[in-house]
Write a structure and sequence with these properties.
Helix content: 25-40%
Bound molecules: 3-[(4S)-2,5-dioxoimidazolidin-4-yl]propanoic acid, fe (iii) ion
Strand content: 15-25%
Distance between the termini: 18 Å
Radius of gyration: 21 Å
Largest sheet: 8 strands, parallel
Length: 411
Amino acid sequence: MAGQSKSRAGDLRLWRNARLATMAEGSAGLGVVEHGAVAARDGRIVYAGPESELPPTLAQGAETVDCEGRWITPGLIDCHTHLVHAGNRANEFEMRLAGATYEEVARAGGGIVSSVKSLRAASEDDLVAQSLPRLDALIAEGATTVEIKSGYGLDLENEKKSLRAARQLGNQRPVTIRTTFLGAHALPPEAKGDKDAFIDLVAKEILPSVAAEGLADAVDGFCEGIAFSPDQMARVFDAARAARLPVKLHADQLSNLHGAELAARYGALSADHLEYTDEAGAAAMARAGTVATILPGAYYFIRETKKPPIGLFRQHGVRMAVATDNNPGTSPLTSLLLTMNMAATLFGLTVDECLAGVTREAARALSLLRETGTLEVGKSADLAIWDIERPAELVYRMGFNPLHARIWRGQ
Ligand code: DI6
Ligand code: FE
């Protein structure tokens, strides 16, 4: 049994003398507990609340950590990334700094298609090796769950390679990985401009095969003038429905094609970006319970000026998640802490909204709310322990990491 943990059945752990931001639904604000404790048995939370009310049976025999007054939040969740990719596009960044437009960059062989070329040339192991440092950067700031999309393969073999690489990342690190099939991301060169034929391929061949192998937990698409139309996306969503996979959508990022309404019509878990979403879109999302995933990194990096309609989301009661959108073209960002700062500074989200956005609401956007995202009994013991005096510090600082410890499934 060398190297095995000596845990007996009923392995009990206790974090005491802590301040908790439970993020529990229905509690005011962050669900703060000033003199709090969290107990976990076999990786599941069995208590989260005031230390004074901790049942004595949970205090006795537990492996105990004195948190010395530090704050505990749920482990952070990045619910929108394209983290599995090969190479980078720093060269395009330089071209843009020198004044080139996106079109010029694309004509020079850049854009998503250049990432497709790099990914197709990389082996699965190579992809894993190149992606690990990005995942490690998220983990180092307390992430315990990360969503990863395909979308740089754009054919059967390479989409599967991406999703397998994403699953492998989850085997190599103590983190929960959720995979999303993003076949309808861009048109590959071999499609020769025929978007409808490519959508057929995605909906009739690639998606069913990916689903049959259990490689994807959800299906996403890029609904945009430079990508696919709402009608084309609907064909992909019909195929997702037939495969019993939930959907998400890159919607209304650069123009208003009413992607938010399309997503809502299909009961999407989330619609993401949403800079150009209008009131009808926000209202439809509220009715459908579709989460609005806010991606300030992409907004910042491409110097977008139109902000997502945060006021409308609040007014209609749309839940908001916050994510990095880590990708080589429009958001080479691997920090959820900085992402929260951007969401607050650029879009005016409150500290409470930012923290909910990278915990509870991000879990909701991944259909994982019963499993993680808050400090509540029955959920996985995914915790982040912080060297801070108040939660606002997690949003306020830029480029500083106050993580003291990270617990995934109780370890
Ligand atoms: N929206 C984006 O901003 C990224 N993908 C997407 O659907 C861009 C991805 C890239 O440029 O590589
Ligand atoms: Fe994205």
